[in-house]
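User: Reviewer 2 asked us to show a designed sequence for the structure in our supplementary figure. I'm pasting the structure tokens here. Could you produce the per-position amino acids so we can include them in the response letter?
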């Protein structure tokens, strides 16, 4: 749960870029919602799950999402679906992992809890 700040490091159109992000995660007993906002777009998870096995040291948040860019950037950044897998740190204050999309983009995500 909570608010997070972070960076998306991604490869797009032949080069690497960084984008500052704000993340909000809302977790209830039956539901996990991941919302990401940047200066150009917002994403909402459409399904989310934890993969946790403490005996094996596995602690991941995995989710698929719909990303909707602002109309002003849609010429170069279309609406798209993606999936992310984030490792949850031992102190539960950092999320770090990878994402990939249906427009064949990919990158790395790093979030720190506020």
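Assistant: Here is a per-position design you can include in the supplement:
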């Amino acid at each position: 749960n909570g608010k997070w700040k972070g960076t998306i490091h991604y490869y797009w159109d032949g080069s690497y870029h960084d984008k500052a992000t704000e993340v909000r995660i809302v977790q209830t007993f039956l539901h996990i919602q991941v919302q990401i906002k940047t200066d150009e777009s917002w994403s909402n998870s459409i399904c989310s799950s934890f993969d946790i096995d403490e005996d094996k040291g596995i602690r991941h948040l995995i989710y698929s999402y719909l990303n909707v860019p602002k109309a002003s950037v849609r010429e170069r950044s279309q609406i798209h679906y993606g999936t992310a897998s984030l490792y949850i740190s031992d102190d539960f204050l950092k999320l770090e992992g990878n994402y990939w999309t249906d427009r064949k983009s990919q990158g790395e995500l790093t979030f720190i809890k506020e």
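For the response letter, you might also mention the following. Residues 43 and 92 are 22 Å apart (CA to CA). The mean pLDDT is 94.
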